[in-house]
Input
Amino acid sequence: MPLKVKRLLVSQPKPETERSPYFDIAEKYGIEIDFRPFIKIEAVSAKEFRQQRISVLDYSAIIFTARTAIDHFFHMCGELRIMVPETMKYFCMTEAIAVYLQKYTVYRKRKIFFGQAGKVEELATLIGKHPKETYLAPVSDVHRDDLFRLLDAKKVRYAKAVMFRTVSNSFSDGESFDYDMLLFFSPSGIASLMKNFPDFKQNDIRIGCFGPTTAKAVKDAGLRLDVEAPTPEAPSMTAALELYLRKEQPNGKDDDK
Output
């Protein structure tokens, strides 16, 4: 019989609402779930941004691939006292990211564009339909280049501006790390695991991840990948987790009775 999962670490902040599927899974299967981000996002300083010699007002459109980028873009503009003109256009990876812009600007359909499927190919095509714009993309110091390769092929005029960075969260010496399963959501999380625990041995610890780049990072680190999302059967990490647990301990808490 396979070893049961009793303690699970989710490398994300604890959900703010009790309606999270993680809490339902914990109760159903009798699992203790801890939430501990392996990485954290830090803003670059105004001085670091100035060293990139980028002027926001030289661009007519902004590319946002995540809500984090929106927060840091407008934070930087505020710190530098840059008044973003009402004529600025925004091109977003998804509708959810586009709607998040309401936190900082009046939502007008004529200046906000977004993809329907959340794919970089779709966003690149959308941007390519507006060839007269000059684009600025706020990014992390570590970011994927697949979108920018597509924009290069379309000869789109753009610049990348590093406005935030991803850093490892440190674990204190002697801190308990006794888990049966670890869930990761970015390659940076895997890098942080190996940095915090250079002698990490997976053994019977199950590892799950979300996204193909994270899956690649798991395998590149020489680790075994046990649970992967998204898949047709499991579009989310919680769905994939429940499928795995259902097979391993199908009766939940009752299988100990």
